Amino acid sequence: LLPGCELTASTKSYTFQVDEEDDSDHILALSVVCLTDGAKDECNVVEVIGRNHENQEIAVPVANLKLSCQPLLSLDNFKLQPPVTFRLAAGSGPVHLAGWHKIMHRGDASFEEDDDLSEEDEEELPSIMPAKK
Q: Domain named Nucleoplasmin core: which ranges (predicted)?
């Protein structure tokens, strides 16, 4: 999904999958869903299709975009486990999806250290002063 994909009336879905024999953990994070140039003022519903904990396929709507009221939605790095399919369930788009893909090699503990801030990395925040009257 780097830098992204586009869903349209002619290309209604995009599947992101990884090699099943890959011995790594993969995280796909969806950051932004937005209407792009040429979109009509209609509801554009984007679904994510994946598998739940019981390995059953589920479809979940993640965005309902309309040019006149909500042309863009930030999903704050909504994390997904590949394989996952993005589908334009309603509307004709074009809808652009952007996010990132992180590969974590099993047995490599360095990725765990990256997520934790050490005391050295923390910045001192200035104290808050009361407002002057």
A: 4-101
The residue ranges of every structural domain in the chain are: 4-104
Question: Per-residue confidence at 52, pLDDT binned at 50, 70, 90?
Answer: confident
pLDDT tens string 96-111:
999 988 887 776 555 4
CATH number of 4-104: 2.60.120.340
Q: Is the pTM of this model over 0.70?
A: yes
The CA distances from residue 125 to 119, 120, 122, 128, in Å, are 13, 14, 9, 9
In whole angstroms, what is the distance from residue 17 CA to residue 21 CA? 12
Burial label for 93, CB within 10 Å (0-12, 13-18, 19+), is buried
Cα dist from 52 to 15, 29, 58, whole Å: 16, 17, 7
- Parallel/antiparallel/unpaired status of strands 24-35 and 95-105: antiparallel
